[in-house]
# Entry
Amino acid sequence: MCGIFGGTPELISRDAERLLLHRGPDQQGRVVVTAKGGRSLVIGQTRLSVVYKEDVPTPMTKGDASIAFNGEIYNWLELRQALEARGHRFETPTDTEVALAAYLEWGPACLERFNGMFAIAIWHDDKLFLARDRLGKKPLFYTHTARGIGFASELKVLRDLDFAEVPICTALEFYFDEYTPFSNVKSLRAGEYLIYDANDNSVSTKRWWSFPEHTSEITDPDQAIDQFIELFSDACRIRKVADVPVTIFLSGGVDSSLIQAVLKLDVSYTVQFQEFERTINERDLVVEFAKRHAFEARIVVPTRDEFLDTFADLARYIEFPVGSFSVFPLFCLARAARRDGFVVALSGEGSDELFNGYYRNELLLREDADLVPDFKGPYGTLCARYFGSPVERFCRMASRQGLPGLPLLLDYFGPLWRTQHSLAQNISYLEATVFMQPLLVMADRLSMGNSLEVRNPFLDYRVVDFSAKLADDLKYRDGHGKWLLRQALKRLVGEDLGISRRTIKHGLPAPVNQWLFKSSAFDRKDWNHVLLGECLKQLALARDSK
# Structure
């Protein structure tokens, strides 16, 4: 895992290596490339050594091509063999060199062959190629002006940030897709690549991946469970491969418990707030699991004083609000694991989005099932007028401002709604492509703030494709989501453990409102405002060092 940066020198910080040192403490470097027309660009990288611990050229160069790479390509060995058969020769055992060779061989189409998480910058033939993985696990921001282009893994590297509110992001209380808090900076979208022509200073973008269409072709429960366990086990296995110690962020829920059931890692890390011991008790569930399956469960108990002490660090790493109370606990998990010598942690992001796992999903799906007789009855028109369409009900659920926020959300989500698909399928689609994005920001920023790499087996593109083939009742059944995952977990660990019987999804909240505002509510608006102010302060401090 690494930090990457570059572009026109006056658009990025002269101190980029230091600003991204937490993303790559093992090596840092930059090269200057020049187009035939005379325009010069920087390509830079900071490197965290995970799969190959020896020093390598950073950035890496082959002929007139250079690459800065952030992430992991888990199938790089297979790709290397295919490229060697085509005449390519390699000097390092790294996925970075394979990624560069793959681009030189197949161009942008190489991305479709990668199984991994990545943000890539490649200079070749007077063009800069930037790309992100399918679901946007690795960040990449850019600015394009008359002076040229600048790009970086984090906003703090870019100069001249112009703050401006984004109405849809204000309504949702998080940023996603191309949106950032700054009018002159965009995020490259998940599954998108960009080509910058240095000779005419032009930029073009293209979506190279989109969420698969739902087909509901898998209907048999037993076959579905078998297929899932086989596929998910391989997704976990390839994400365990590293030349450094590997651990897991383990809650008492289905998602991370499935990962641990497959991999049987020696040590896990769990957050337990004393304030939530009576209402959200992860510790007891994890300890029971650990005793039964003989691994060490390390429990992290963050405090209010620690939160206040690390608040500036949280803002410096996260850079903008993500509409979540999980910022602090994720940072604490990553910090504890890194202090204990771990460099890689597996985590369960993605399962709720793909398998209708959130309570808000269950609420909508329960209501939808209950309304079927009414909509089919003699007063169906009245019911449709009163309850609204599926997309209207979804937007009411998503609105943080109640009914006043509904028109803006309808304007945005209406065109995205796939009317040929069911409510459950649309929920999975929007959760995975919109609402998951701030969670991936947290997973990346707060782990990399501690120089720790987080890997997500549920976001293997094969698992995503599999989820889109499932019949709705294999995800949501008997009033609860993630039915298939619960059955898989029972098969792997038995039915008597608390993790197998648990049906309530709690998430990973911190008692921030209690600490700051003397409130037990989970309304995040005040927390977002406080965090935004500190984020802007930290970005200003970074700017002063540029």
Notes: Residues 325 and 509 are 5 Å apart (CA to CA).
